[in-house]
Design brief:
It contains two helices and eleven strands; from the N terminus they run H-E-E-E-E-E-E-E-E-E-E-H-E. The chain has 164 residues and is an alpha+beta fold. It has a domain at 51-162: Immunoglobulin-like (Sandwich). The longest helix has 26 residues, at 6-31.
Length: 164
């Protein structure tokens, strides 16, 4: 009867282990690139002495693996991952929201897009809504920060998760 050489048997087992490990690493890397916090349910009432900014980013398959660091007046307030939003308290007056060179997933590669800035003059007791749009055009990635209305933001925030 024909018997498999023990060396080939061991190579076959190692190949299955390698595939499993590779698959596990890929899943881990993809999970690290999307927002995983609690799902958005409703708008929080704005405090009387300050205001809130909802900064969000709808999920886009072609750009899920990269995310920027978000800065408020040059201070880090978090990473804005695909399918996520940040709730940022604003002091009354001039505030500058910007995207900075952040991480490209857990690989620690950099967000190489041009720094985007948006100025918000905040009034106490109000809410503001900004959306980060990414455009993948012929392997060239472009980004825009746009202000949206509360009605538009409510529609687009549904299904998004807090970016952590």
């Amino acid at each position: 009867m024909f018997e498999i050489n023990p060396i080939w048997r061991e190579l076959k087992v190692n190949a299955y282990k390698s595939r499993y490990l590779c698959f596990s690493v890929i899943i881990f890397l993809l999970i690290g690139c999307v927002a995983t916090g609690p799902q958005f349910t409703e708008l929080a009432p704005a405090p009387q002495d300050s205001s809130y900014l909802y900064f969000y980013r709808p999920s886009q398959k072609s750009t899920e693996t990269i995310y920027p660091t978000v800065l408020l007046n040059d201070s880090d307030v978090g990473a804005l991952k695909a399918g996520g939003y940040l709730l940022i308290p604003l002091k009354p007056g001039n505030n500058v929201i910007s995207t900075s060179r952040g991480l490209m997933g857990p690989w620690s590669l950099h967000w190489d897009l041009k720094k985007q800035e948006y100025e918000v003059y905040a009034v106490a007791g109000r809410r503001y809504f900004l959306k980060l749009e990414l455009h993948n055009m012929y392997q060239l990635l472009l980004s825009d920060i746009i202000q949206v209305t509360e009605d538009t933001a409510l529609q687009e925030l549904k299904g998004l998760k807090l970016s952590q």
